[in-house]
Design brief:
heterodimer, A: seven-stranded mixed beta sheet, B: mainly alpha, 46% helix, 1% strand, globular
């Protein structure tokens, strides 16, 4: 059948006419989009900066009181990344996730823009003149009415000169010394250490120990000085077959517990009996009875402790006898001869000295409730959130006539205040710290203030200078001048010391005044079937991290949940209660009740439930407010009598199923490896038996022993052949893939090794990657489509697997796999950072229809964003599941889902493209750092030096588990490590020729303990 | 087919064309060659380069040490322009200086944001400014001489034996 096209369709001539008209219109459309972009130069060039080149400032981290040294990278006047200071004695270049996230505090979109005054019941913007006048006036009123001696100033705990400076200022106005409050410090241990050693925090030398026993001390979770402890712990583990065995005693296996070789699940509150029995001042039988631990286990532990010298015992329990436990452990360490070897008071950290305790703050709350506090000033702490409700801090505040906050953020305490004088962020102001005796950590502004804020110290000086009585004591015009004035050697010496970030010296001496504590409330009669434990979140701390999306989106290292609270409950108990993962349970204690979705966790005693702190904010900005529940709602006022520390695990609770179900916001696929051999481990005995590397060379190898016939990340012969000259398969010209090619690109082979014996799963690498590579967070409620109401709320995107984490920390359990879920303490956790493996024979590459992903000659698996059309075939074909799709315009400022609301976008790394909607992205091996190092070497007319630079994850890692570099040049560390005997490739059987080489974890089962790990960890 | 029905296809094709134009703009494929926007001050490159013999790097001071070539600060201009003739254009400059405001120059050469162009690598490899920016010393008002599209870049990279792997520039 033939059809006359002309009769029913458009004739050719007419079609061309129409097309012509449309084409002309296109040209018009095309030309009309010629927006003229502006190029704005400086008015006057700032000294010593080059546009487009980073300037680095050494400073001090203020995210916890350990005071690590940091290097802040700034570009064109904006801080863009925080890294550890390699020269600093405390953290040696490493930095935890929280320290790195200080940037999101600096650029937090909910920061106060300027001072606020409460007028007609609401906080309204004011000028600094108005605000300072009001403060002066109120200070005058308080003094003239004789109330100055009852005024209260609660400051965040920090070492350095500011506490003493503040006390001087307070005394000039007749006010008593301030409260230097820190809710995260283990006050019980600090008090015990002061009694035993005279210092708050002796150095814990894990690397020198041959046996480590932790009694609830979560030294990898943020307890104490997290970074130096982790460095030392990883060094201990890196001794492989000679590494110390680690035993964790506690009701819940924290991240530290998961890093232990053995878990002794003792009832909360029974630790004292165990410690005493172990050191011979109590009976093992009764300790076994009290703690619920088999006596055989305790006997074995006692034998091990007696036989192994030196050992390191640490206590960190949070019960009402916490200080007694700490004292007993200190005495035990002394009797074992560990003091001076593994517990070194001479190298004490100073960051935890002089801190006020929760009991002190309860005292403040009581005085406020009694109406005897005329003036309350708060800076950097949020007691109305972080002190249990039973203390009635918020109610007390209502009875204080005038309340001043110096906080940067609208937190629960600040929103109740009458005057807000927002402080500079720590990256914007001067200061000092005393991380160790004799070391003065320096803090300097790294950029101009983001908002109209003022350093509190400057505010205090300005107010004092207005006061006729105090003015004479404040001749310096601001804190910086004062600070330089007292620095030994003055301005020149300070200028010389600043690039290093620290100097020898001491801050202005400060001695905390003793505060009036509340009479400890009588411990209420506890009823309920369960012990209730509350612990500070490793990522959010006591809640101060909750307004930073990086930390909210960082999965908890243990539960792998984010953007929500959870109640940890053992599968055996859950079965009994009929609770499944995600079912909302109610935990009711004598102090109150709290609800949260259940997390069925192997690592908790069946008679215990646990909840992390840090969520359930009712203020504190868009990322915190309304996310999760505050576990403190069910915590009463029980404190350790000796030290004033909060007793977080002293409650009994009733646990009931509510009948509702909450979603499980997790990044975890499965908690088990299902025989895939992803995270492999071996026994220390295997390493020892097979001797050293020479034995391996002689052919004595254990199963799975490292064997590399290929360079990590090398293109397989097949893949290499496929890419001849311009796709001509017959051509023998390999172009840039030929190592002898003039470009020299194929001479390098970028590769990475990850030592699982060192990795603790802390996840600092994940945050480093977010910071370096402009990775959007996607868990905020507005980052989903609003047309689907069931898919909104915190973490909604993550429910659908849309997290963008280029590197993720996988956590797998081995052992204790029982059908009926009965309790079994004998299981192991393995942590494995999973990122793009930069396969030499990558499954993602051949399936891309537009060549957006391909293998570069230097071994990188490249993702070209501008070529990508978003088919997602690559992600579908990736066995490692490390490719991430931009489902929404997270990187596009005009979209609702924008992940960087002003001024969070100031943090973006200018060297990395911000990806748009519909584009696939993944780990690039920090290609921008590679190119930067190449450029530097070329401009300096030299070859790149071995280990000259590293990737962001490797730089941050507090365990030094990650090594990055050129595997083709044997002078680089990575080339040597890739041939380690423990090396293996994940899914090597797929012939992917990965460029990421993992080194097996090494397990140390106790004598007579069944080894969990099969010889290689694989089952095929 | 009536004349009316015939032309009814125009809106549809127009819409299609608009989509195509948007796509091409999004992909950066549209070429801005010859673009010559008006500048806030009629800065004469020929006077500075040819008459006064100034080096490009005097004003674009970081082109040999930074990915960013550097735009002269108003202070740099005023280093010389406090003396000599005061034309209306120089008076405009002086006004910016007294108000302590930067000069909002109209940007002419712009690569898409997914491209990294390190100026210092090119300058130090002996690529003249004119290779990309055209004969600026002869332009009374600067315009874009070259397309700056990827094929144009690659041709030069191949000729001069510079790497042309995607990930050299795209990351």
């Amino acid at each position: 059948m033939s059809v006359d096209a002309g009769a029913i369709g458009v004739r050719r001539r007419e079609f061309l006419k129409i097309l012509g008209a449309s084409g002309a219109a296109t040209t018009l459309v095309g030309c009309s989009s010629g927006d003229v972009e502006k190029l704005i130069p400086y008015v006057v060039n700032p000294d010593q900066t080059v546009p487009g080149v980073s300037t680095y400032y050494a400073s001090t981290c203020r995210e916890c009181s350990a005071a690590c040294g940091i290097i802040v990278e700034t570009r064109d006047g904006r801080a863009i990344k925080i890294e550890g200071n390699p020269a600093h004695p405390v953290n040696q270049g490493a930095l935890c996730a929280r320290g790195q996230s200080a940037l999101q505090g600096l650029y937090n979109p909910d920061r106060y823009r300027g001072p606020m005054i409460r007028r007609d019941g609401t906080l309204t913007p004011a000028t600094w003149d108005e605000a300072l006048t009001l403060l002066s006036q109120k200070l005058g009123e308080v003094r003239s009415r004789g109330g100055a001696a009852s005024a209260v100033f609660v400051n965040q705990h920090e070492s350095g000169s500011f506490p003493a400076f503040l006390d001087e200022w307070l005394s000039a106005f007749g006010m008593p010394g301030h409260y230097s409050y820190e809710g995260e410090i283990d006050h019980a241990v600090v008090a015990a250490n002061r009694e035993s050693y005279g210092v708050a925090w002796p150095e814990l030398n894990f690397a020198a120990a041959r046996l480590i026993v932790s009694f609830g001390a979560d030294f990898l979770d943020g307890w104490g000085a997290s970074v130096p402890q982790q460095l030392s712990f990883a060094d201990a583990r890196a001794k492989l077959q000679d590494a110390p065995r680690v035993v964790y005693v506690g009701a819940r296996r924290s991240l530290t517990g998961l890093n232990a070789d053995e878990w002794v699940p003792a009832r909360p509150g029974s630790e004292l009996a165990i410690v005493n029995a172990l050191r011979g001042s109590g009976s093992l039988a009764s300790a076994a009875d009290t703690s619920g631990v088999p006596i055989g286990t305790l006997e074995r532990l006692a034998r091990d402790i007696a036989a192994t010298r030196p050992s390191l015992l640490v206590s960190g329990v949070s019960s009402s006898n916490a200080m007694d436990v700490a004292l007993a452990v200190n005495a035990f360490n002394a009797s074992l001869g560990n003091v001076g070897l593994t517990v070194v008071p001479a190298n004490a950290l100073r960051g935890f000295e002089n801190a006020a305790t929760p009991a002190d703050l309860r005292g403040v709350a009581e005085r406020m409730n009694a109406g005897s506090v005329p003036l309350l000033m708060v800076r950097g702490v949020n007691p109305s959130y972080s002190v249990p409700k039973s203390a009635r801090f918020a109610e007390g505040m209502a009875k204080v006539p005038f309340k001043v906050s110096f906080s940067c953020y609208p937190d629960e305490t600040t929103v109740l205040c009458d005057l807000v004088l927002p402080d500079h962020h720590s990256l914007e102001q001067w200061g000092d710290a005393e991380p160790m005796r004799g070391t003065l950590g320096l803090q300097q502004p790294t950029m101009d203030p983001v908002f109209n804020t003022r350093a509190t110290a400057d505010v205090l000086i300005a107010v004092a200078q207005k006061d006729p009585g105090a003015a004479a004591r404040y001749p310096a015009k601001d804190y910086r001048t004062w600070f330089i004035g007292r620095f030994p050697g003055g301005a020149d010496a300070l200028t010389a010391a600043l690039p290093q970030g620290f100097a020898s010296g001491a801050p202005l001496p400060y001695r905390a005044v003793s505060h009036q504590r509340s009479a400890a409330p009588a411990a209420p009669a506890e009823t309920g079937d369960f012990h209730f434990m509350v612990y500070p979140s490793p990522t959010l701390g006591d809640g101060r991290g909750a307004n930073k999306p990086w930390l909210q989106e960082l999965p908890d290292p243990v539960s792998k949940r984010c953007w929500q609270s959870w109640v940890e409950i053992h599968p055996e108990t859950a079965r009994r209660l009929g609770v499944e993962n995600g079912d909302v349970v109610q935990v009711e204690t004598s102090a109150g009740s709290v609800r949260g979705p259940a997390y069925l966790y192997l690592g908790i005693r069946p008679d215990t439930v646990a909840m992390p702190l840090g969520l359930g904010h009712t203020a504190y900005g868009r990322y915190a407010e309304g996310c999760g529940a505050n576990a403190l709602d069910a915590v009463g006022g029980v404190v350790d009598q000796g030290s004033g520390a909060m007793a977080f695990s002293s409650h009994r609770a009733r646990v009931t199923k509510t009948g509702t179900h909450d979603r499980v916001v997790t990044t975890e696929g499965s908690a088990r490896q299902h025989g895939r051999g992803i995270a492999q481990a071996m026994l220390a005995s295997e390493l020892a038996e097979h001797g050293d590397a020479h034995a391996a060379a002689a052919g004595h190898a254990f199963m799975g022993d490292a064997s590399h016939e290929f360079l990590p990340g090398l293109r397989s012969p097949v893949a290499n052949d496929a890419q001849g000259d311009l796709g001509n398969p017959a051509s023998k010209d390999k172009g840039m893939y030929d190592p002898t090619h003039w470009s020299g690109m194929a001479k390098r082979r970028w590769a990475m090794t990850i030592d699982l014996a060192r990795c603790t799963g802390c996840s600092a690498c994940v945050t480093a990657c977010y910071a370096e590579n402009n990775i959007p967070t996607v868990g905020a409620p507005w980052q989903v489509m609003s047309v689907m109401p069931d898919r909104t709320g915190f973490g909604a995107n993550l429910l659908r697997g849309r997290e963008m984490s280029w590197i993720r920390l996988e956590r797998y359990f081995e052992g204790a796999e029982h059908e009926d879920g009965h309790f079994d303490a004998h299981f192991e956790a393995r942590f494995l950072p999973m990122l793009c493996q930069h396969c030499g024979n990558a499954p993602c590459e051949p399936v891309c229809p537009v060549f957006a992903t391909y293998h570069a000659p230097d071994g990188l698996n490249v993702q070209v964003y501008n070529r990508c059309v978003g088919t997602r075939y690559c992600s579908n074909n990736c066995p490692y599941k490390v490719r991430y799709m931009n489902w929404f315009g997270y990187g596009e400022a005009d979209r609702k889902q924008y992940a960087f609301p002003e001024p969070l976008n100031w943090q973006l790394n200018p060297d990395v493209t911000v990806r748009g909607k519909g584009v696939m992205e993944k780990c690039s091996f920090c290609v921008q750092r590679i190119r930067e190092a190449e450029s530097r070497a070329t401009l300096e007319g030299r070859e790149m030096e071995p280990d000259e630079f590293t990737s962001a994850c490797a730089q941050a890692c507090p365990s030094r588990a990650i090594t990055f570099g050129d595997a083709a040049d044997e002078n680089w560390s990575v080339a040597k490590l890739a041939h380690d005997r423990r090396a293996y490739h994940v899914f090597a059987e797929l012939n992917t020729y990965t460029a990421v080489v993992y080194l097996k974890k090494v397990n140390h089962p106790g004598s007579g303990q069944q080894a969990i790990a099969p010889a290689t960890g694989t089952e095929h | 087919m009536t004349q009316r029905r015939q032309w009814a296809a125009v809106p549809g094709l127009l819409a299609l064309a608009a989509v195509a134009a948007m796509l091409s703009a999004y992909s950066g494929a549209s070429s801005p060659e010859g673009r010559q926007p008006a500048q806030p001050i009629a800065f004469p490159h020929p006077t500075h380069v040819k008459t006064l013999g100034m080096n490009c790097l005097y004003c674009h001071f970081s082109a040999n040490k930074s990915p960013d070539p550097g735009m002269p600060a108003v202070g740099t201009c005023m280093g010389c322009h406090t003396v000599g003739v005061q034309t209306p254009e120089i008076k405009k400059l002086a006004t910016y200086w007294t108000k302590k405001q930067p000069i909002p120059w109209a940007r002419i050469h712009k690569l898409p944001e997914y491209v990294r162009f390190p100026h210092m690598r090119h300058v130090n490899a002996g690529v003249t400014c004119q290779s990309c920016h055209g004969q600026v010393q002869d332009m009374k008002t600067v315009y874009q001489e070259n397309s700056l599209n990827m094929g144009w870049c690659i041709n030069c990279h191949i000729e001069r034996k510079a790497r042309y792997d995607c990930a050299n520039c795209h990351y």
